[in-house]
Amino acid sequence: MIRANYSAVSEFVLLGLSNSWEIQVFIFFFTCLFYVSSLTGNFIIVVTVTSDPYLHSPMYFLLANLSVIDLIFCSIAAPKMICDLFRKQKVISFGGCISQIFFSHAVGGTEMVLLIAMAFDRYVAICKPLRYLTIMSPRMCLLILVAAWIIGLIHSSAQLAFVINLPFCGPNILDSFYCDIPRLVKLACTDTYKLELMITANSGFISLIAFFLLIISYVFLLTTVQKQSSGCSSKALSTLLAHITVVVLFFGPLIFFYVCPSPSTHVDKFLAIFDAVLTPFLNPIIYTLRNRDMKIAIRKVFCQCLAFRKSM
Ligand SMILES: *[C@@H]1O[C@H](CO)[C@@H](O)[C@H](O)[C@H]1NC(C)=O
């Protein structure tokens, strides 16, 4: 309400990805397929972990929480993008744009903290196995979760505080399929150089630092696991490799966006699709296909469902 005083823009026009009909049809099917698969896959993980007492351990609780986050994350931009794909004029209101930014950063920040917590969880399990259940107590898990959401919300609010009071006075065309901060800031009628630096620092460097910390800790864990010649080390190894894959898939596009933004190319638009629907889809695939316990548990849940329906 306050900003209406000096800003004339009440909605933004999204250019989408491409004007070519074939590419749009391709993107439509691609996005629908992966969006629906993300929803299904993550939903199955949440149901399996909550219903199978065998999976009631800190690692699986964190994994299920990651799936909840993925469910929210892929629903921020993808549904609107799918609905808009064949519209001539794709518009988004100022409020819609701001809330897309707010939720994607809040959820993204939370996911980042959760990925770090999952690395910590593996560190305790591998390096301090005897004290695992005392360190990763239910209280600790809850604490981690609350901290993750608070950090996500703070990060997102800090990011928006820079943007919300910018004067938008005319140009309102966003060359993207959803609102992202780097492109939005470029539309403001003021010198945004410092602001862009601040945003790069807030999103880019934080993710860069978190990424390197995670990679270093996983390399450390990998070497530790390799040195221990216990029977379960190949299982630990495959869990670690799954975690590392997810970390790379999550941070890769982020770092590309915020550390070296180059809005003139189309690469980052395709990467944005990747981030919006493909990463949330890949998480369940990576965690379940590589994990025997998870596969067994999913089968059990399915059998129970079938038995339940037969007995009705
Ligand atoms: C998220 O983690 C908390 C704390 O460990 C756990 O109680 C809860 O069941 C998890 N959420 C899901 C959906 O599994």
Structure commentary:
The chain is mainly alpha-helical and 312 residues long. The protein has one domain: Rhopdopsin 7-helix transmembrane proteins. Helices cover 75% and strands 3% of the residues. The protein contains ten helices and three strands; from the N terminus they run βααβαααβααααα. Strands 2-1-3 form a three-stranded mixed β-sheet. α2 (58-84) packs antiparallel against α3, α3 packs antiparallel against α5 (138-164) and α3 (94-127) runs parallel beside α7 (193-227). The termini are far apart. The site of 2-acetamido-2-deoxy-beta-D-glucopyranose has 11 residues, from α1, α2 and α5. 2-acetamido-2-deoxy-beta-D-glucopyranose binds at residues 46, 49-50, 61, 64-65, 68, 138, 141-142, 145. Residues 41-287 form the G-protein coupled receptors family 1 profile domain. It holds the Pfam family 7tm_4.
- How many domains, in number, for the residues? 1
Number of helices: 10
Q: Uncertain spans, ≥5 residues at pLDDT below 50?
A: 1-5
Shape descriptor: globular
Question: Secondary-structure element sequence?
Answer: EHHEHHHEHHHHH
Structural class given helices, strands, pairing?
mainly alpha
Q: Which molecules are bound in this entry? A: 2-acetamido-2-deoxy-beta-D-glucopyranose
Largest beta sheet: strand ordering: 2-1-3
Tell me the name of the CATH homologous superfamily: Rhodopsin 7-helix transmembrane proteins
What's the CATH class, please?
A: Mainly Alpha
CATH architecture: Up-down Bundle
The overall average pLDDT, rounded, is 82
Main sheet overview: 3 strands, mixed
Tell me the fraction of residues in β-strands, as a range: under 5%
Which bin fits the share of residues in helices? over 70%
| Overall strand count | 3
The N- and C-terminal alpha carbons lie at a distance of 55 Å
CATH T-level topology: Rhopdopsin 7-helix transmembrane proteins
Q: What is the CA-atom radius of gyration, in angstroms?
A: 21 Å
